[in-house]
Amino acid sequence: MASIFARIQNATDHEVRTVLAGLCADSTNKRYAEKLFDRLDQTAKAYGDRKLAVPTLDICLNCKQAYNEAQNAANACHYHSGIIEINHDSEAWVDCWGDEIHDSEEMREDLPEGFMWSCCEKDMDAPGCMRGSHKQGRVKRPRTTTAATVQPAGESATKRTRCVASGQNMMINYNMAVADKCVL
Fold first, then answer.
1. Region (Disordered): which ranges (predicted)?
2. Domain extent listing, the chain
């Protein structure tokens, strides 16, 4: 069976809309889709009523913001390389006991100050601690045991690394999608 990303590329507009509507039956997916549409709308509105055509916009894999590839500078993207974790030292949890302290979308919305980024230990809503160009793509990069080299758009970096998820050794060209090389 073809990868989901190949199937999306080859799907008709009707098929894509049907799948998206089905995914949005889940409230978490629905909220995420709404955020992505809002980001695309905000970026398109920034072009206003100019005579210029609105450029094709992509969603960055790192920062999840809409961007125009033609205006993608080397330091345009601010993102976190880690994951969001519970900050057990946060004052947000003072009135919570035992299993009241857990990681969920609802808890992240209700008590964002109770969570932090693993990469920099800053609050969940802190600006990104990493900088680089926006990354277009269709897959999320797997976490690796070595830090990724941030390269300006149009350049590539190859690095030998080990995929945390599968334990596989691999060579990665950071301009390529690597999900097919790392089984999650």
1. 131-154
2. 1-73+132-137, 82-128, 139-184
- At 43 the three-state DSSP class reads helix
The predicted model scores a pTM of 0.49
CA distance 119 to 180: 25
C-alpha distances in Å from residue 23, one per residue of 16, 34, 96, 120: 11, 12, 33, 32
- Exposure string (b/e) for 59-82, b if CB count within 10 Å is 16 or more? bbbbbebbbbeeebeeebbebbbb
DSSP 110-170: H-GGGEEETTT--BTTSPPSEEE-----SSPPPPBSSPPPP--TT---EEEEEBTTT--EE
Axis crossing angle, helix 27-45 with helix 13-23, rounded to the nearest 10:
130
> Phi and psi for 9 in degrees, rounded to 5?
-60, -35
* Of 176, 150, 174, residue with least CA distance to 161: 174
Which tens digits make up the pLDDT trace of 26-46?
Answer: 888 888 889 888 877 887 777
Distance CA 142, CA 102 (A): 24
